Amino acid sequence: MRAGISELAIKLRNREISAVELTKAYIDAIEKLNPTLNAYVHLTFDIALKAAEQADQMLKEGDAPPLCGIPMALKDNICTDGLPTTCCSRILTGFKPYYDATVWEKLKKQGAVLLGKTNMDEFAMGSTSETSCYGAPLNPRNTNYVTGGSSGGSAAAVCANLAVYSLGSDTGGSIRQPASFCGVVGLKPTYGAVSRYGLIAYGSSLDQIGPLTNSVKDAAIVFDAVRGGDKRDQTSVDYDYGPSLTQCLEQDVKGLRIGVAEEFFEGINPEIKSKIEEAIALLEKNGAKIEHIRLPALKLALPVYYIIACAEASSNLGRYDGIRYGYRTASYTSIEEMIVKTRSEGFGDEVKRRIMLGTYVLSSGYYDAYYKKACLIREEINREFDAVFETCDVLVAPTAPNTAFPLNYKGASPVEIYLSDICTVPVNIAGVPAISVPCGVDAKGLPIGMQIIGKKFDEATVLQVAHFYEQSAGEVIGAYEGGAGI
Amino acid sequence: MNYEIVCGIETHIELATKTKIFCGCTTEFGGEPNTHCCPVCTGQPGTLPILNQKVVEYAIKAGLALNCKINTKSHMDRKNYVYPDLPKAYQISQYDEPLCEKGYIELDSGKRIGITRIHIEEDAGKLVHENGYTYIDYNRGGVPLIEIVSEPDISSAEEAREYAEKLQLTMRYIGISDCKMQEGSMRCDVNLSLRKPGDPNFGVRTEIKNINSLSFIQKAVIAEAERQADILDAGGTVVQQTMRYDEATNSVTPMRDKENSDDYRYFPDPDILRFCIDEAKVEEIRASLPELPFAKLRRYVNDLGLPEATAKQISRYRKVAEFFEGALAEGASVKNAANLIVGTIFSNMDTEEEKELFAVRISAAQFAALVKLADEKKINIGVAQSTLQKMLESGKPVEEFIKPEDLVGISDEVLENLCREAIEANPRAVDDVRNGKDKAINVMFGYIMKKTGGKADIRKAEALLRKLIGP
Amino acid sequence: MAISKAEIEKLAKLAKLSFSDEELERFTAEFDEIIAFADTINQSIEGGTEQIRSVGARMVSFDDLRPDEVMPSLPNEKILSNVEGYNGFFSVERSKK
Fold first, then answer.
1. Which of A3, B63, B109, B331 is the most exposed place for a label (fewest CB within 10 A)?
2. Which member of B35, B263, B271 has the closest CB to residue C14?
3. pLDDT value of position C44
4. How distant is the alpha carbon of residue A447 from its chain centre?
């Protein structure tokens, strides 16, 4: 069994291993495996080793925070002062922010050791991480398959033990779906639970940062470290979670009301459906009450998501004009042309598609029929979720309708790929928390994820159910051989 | 052919807050390029705007001063357009839920010019085009603005000017902006169309952008109305377009198209939560407003009995009015205080700005001490004026110039003796007066004033002299 | 609802993007399908007339807004750290071969 964060923390405190030694083990593993897996796109080993030395000092002095000296990774859309942050887009070539994202500021203070920035779909737009300008990361479970996306590099790094944990971002499933494809745990917190300051925006009303880890307990520890209100993000909330969410993990599921909505199971691969049903049966066997509920507006969630996310993205991505940072085209005859050429050369196809869709749904004559309508349906979806959580403590659903796609799978059209977000986007639309935990593999040996969805700011119950399932189901998925081996 | 002018004015005013609308950078004017900047106001990826409370407060103040209804719920929208002076490629503004709506400004004629709305938004940076390069300074980017949109109620160049002037005066009065048109802290866009008298339909309008003085507003309206009238008279049609007023040639010409489409794709900014202002807060802000110049003017005329012209000059500037009212509170008389301010103090101030600033070296109480001597006729008005001038130059109180012993002693008895002396000393003048050369009495006045250092009551002296000289 | 190439070009202009003829053909075809997909929201639920707001129903009060207190700005070198500046300005050559 791979050591979790709390075991590593004990080893570090007992001097069984130093933070520098631990970091070096991860650096070695990255050097060995990353050329194949392409999980990291920017490596920060020098800084990692310095941070590890400082962490050792903090550990020596005692009273070090839980994440002190633990090597980790950040998705490439989380701003890191003086280090490349490119959203895996050509348009941000060479961009080094001169400010830290709040999450990174918090982790740095706790002695976190940053190994590098992880691969992702360009501007977090995609479900396979293949839209990265650095090429796709490969799924460590089977390198003929994608990692999922958009936080594919973050999921691959944790899966292959090239980081103890990583942070990703989730706008429509971008933490949970790659976690599911790579067989790791991914938590998308309540909208507002974690500051978005320094997260390069895709869909501002949906984006949320969260951890990808090897266990539910690790997810709770990392979430504890990064959550909290931030005066630099007005949409963040200083919710009182108590001292630590790890405290809720030891409870069982007896008496908990678990909602199962049939809408979540429509069009789902039968192998996945049966694994989720097995998991539900396990929870029921242990005293949970299964409530069959309906979420009729869910069938509209996908178009609503694409309309809102793309509308916001079309506005958020307007600033990439070659003037203040990043890529600038080589030749032009006017500033207007410079901007158009920079953007046309700097953005990839999927980003352009979404900017175009976003521009369309906001443009005069179409606003009411698309953007405004989508916002109204969003409110309806919220009302349905509110109503469901009157009678249920959590909902259980698949994380994705399918397991990992083969590499370069194009599908029939962009829309077919969009459909794979069907189970995850409703959660972002409603702003509620959800976790993906591994619950088995399909016939090809590819991991399957189960999603547990909670009410706003009730990460405690989500983690509790996920942890109980993880502990009682045992090894549902083979351990990854390789990586740092610690 | 005669046409009726239909004109509305959009005014942008920079608010005098300490910090920018969405970050803590200073709003101070000028500074080396890109030194009043941070990741937020230069639109760096991942940064988020945090709305400044003072901006909301100031906008509400403006709304209350302009008789608006305050929307207790409001939100920010994004106005999307790409231009190098706009670092996020959208301006955060307000579209369908502005802070204030439905107010008015009353002109001297009693006509009301409607205010459609007042909303808050951010200013853009500054571009400098030089040597084949465009240079960008974002110091001004993110400075808070209010945009005040009038109804198309203005029907002459004079009304346009008066509207803008009253607006400027009011905003300065409530202390939310210095409204310096030359420095760009107040900028006006004029919308104008013509129609035949009695025609219920509006004609095609043009918009004259960024006019930077009150007199240019007046001139631009005249020039554009003439231009449009010429087109219509020739049987042509006015093209809807954006114009520029050129002060050198006093003409209005079309602006080069920025190549920006009008489709701004407004939508609510997801980074800024909708905000509410409860009634109590609105009332608190209302209570903090000073009495406005027009209310003061009416009060000065109706209650204090000041002539309209004098009342206007004093009520126009907040600091002057405060000085005046401060002196009254100290017991100074309305008439003498007003006349000394307008006659003596203003003679030291050449520009509007100086009157606006009203940097005098004496306090209202010190001023009142002087005015009271004149009120009690202990000094005459000429002495009051010259003493006030000395006080203004030195910053010293009245006691420095007029000693207590100067004020006593000119009793009726002393004055009568002085009059007798004057008659004895000027027999020829006395004869002249008796022979009907009335002006000769001035010789005796001169004598008395010289002896008393100008402190004698000249009317009393005249009465005494006439009595003594006899018919 | 089919979308024309002209409409795509208009949108591209708004979005400050340009497409080659080949890209335009492909995008127009894809876009048709994407719009049809987006259109599914119009097949159900009658639209209300209420105004939409930023970030759901959450609201803040006047007292929660940021106090007007000056924070230090950043040095000019930082502001220009990702670009070649000129005398403290961001700078763009107006044409370049």
1. B109
2. B263
3. 61
4. 16
Query: Chain C contact for A3, CB < 8 A?
Result: no
Smallest CA–CA distance, residue C10 to chain B, in Å, is: 10
For chain C, what percent of residues have pLDDT higher than 90?
48
Q: What pLDDT, on a 0 to 100 scale, did the predictor assign at position C56?
A: 54
Instruction: Let me know the angle formed at the C-alpha of A356 by A351 and A362, rounded to the nearest 5 degrees.
Output: 125
Contact B37 C73 (CB under 8 A): yes
Window 151-180 of B, Cβ < 8 Å to C: none
Please give the pLDDT value at position B404: 64
Was domain C1-43 assigned CATH 1.10.20.60? yes
Peptide bond into B333 cis (omega under 30): no
Instruction: Judge whether B278 is closer than 8 Å to chain C, CB to CB.
Output: yes
Confidence check: pLDDT of C55 > 60:
no
- How many residues does this entry show for chain B? 471
Determine the pLDDT at residue B260. 46
Judgement on whether residues B99 and B162 belong to the same structural domain of the protein = yes
Distance from CA of A227 to the nearest CA of C (A): 19
pLDDT of residue A55: 97
Shortest Cα distance from C51 to chain A (angstroms)? Answer: 8
Name the average pLDDT for chain A.
95
d(C-alpha B213, C-alpha B194), whole Å: 23
Choice among A289-298, A337-346, A472-481, C68-77 with the minimum mean pLDDT = A472-481
Q: How far is CA B169 from the centre of its chain?
A: 3
Q: Which 3 state secondary structure label does DSSP give B445?
A: helix
Range of the domain at B310: 291-407
> Quick one: B403 and B416 in the same domain?
no
> What is the count of structural domains for chain B?
3
Helices (H) and strands (E) in chain B, counts: 16, 16
Residues in chain B closer than 8 A to C80 (CB atoms)? 34
Chain A environment of C11 (Cβ under 8 Å): 356, 359-360, 363
- Verify that B157 and B299 share a domain, yes or no: no
Q: Are B28 and B158 members of one domain?
A: yes
Per-residue pLDDT band for B52 (boundaries 50, 70, 90) equals very high
List active site positions of A: 75, 150, 174
Contacts of C25 (CB under 8 A, 6+ apart): C5
Nearest to B50 among A234, A312, A371 (CB): A234
User: Which of A432, A443, A446 lies closest to A397 in space, CA to CA?
Assistant: A432
pLDDT at A433 over 80: yes
Is 70 exceeded by the pLDDT of residue C50? no
B96 and B190, same domain (yes or no): yes
Looking at the structure, tell me whether residues B324 and B383 fall in a common domain. Answer: yes
Arithmetic mean of pLDDT, B322-337: 87
Ramachandran angles phi, psi of A305, nearest 5°: -60, -50
* Percent of chain B residues topping a pLDDT of 90: 53
Best mutation target, C1, C5, C8, C16, to test chain A (most A CBs within 10 A): C16
Residues 274-313 of A with CB under 8 A from C: 297, 300, 302-304, 306-307
Q: Are residues B56 and B194 in the same domain?
A: yes
C67 touching chain A per CB within 8 A: no
- Say whether residue C1 is in contact with chain A using an 8 A CB cutoff: no
Q: Chains with ≥3 Cβ pairs under 8 A against B? A: A, C
List CB contacts (< 8 A) between C55 and chain B.
268, 270, 272-274
The full set of domains in chain A, from first to last, is 1-486 (3.90.1300.10)
Residue pair B196/B190 in contact by the 8 Å Cβ criterion: no
Measured N-to-C along each axis, helices B458-469 and B441-452 cross at an angle, to the nearest 10 degrees, of: 130
- The domain spans of chain C are 1-43
The 10s digit of each residue's pLDDT in A151-161 is 999 999 999 99
For the stretch A129-174, pLDDT in tens is 999 999 999 999 999 999 998 999 999 999 999 999 999 999 999 9
Residue with tokens 């509209």: A300
Q: Looking at this predicted complex, what is its ipTM?
A: 0.95
Segments of A139-217 assigned E as strands: 165-169, 185-188, 209-213
Identify whether residues B255 and B134 lie together within a single domain: yes
Residue A425's pLDDT is: 97
State whether B82 and A325 contact (CB < 8 Å): no
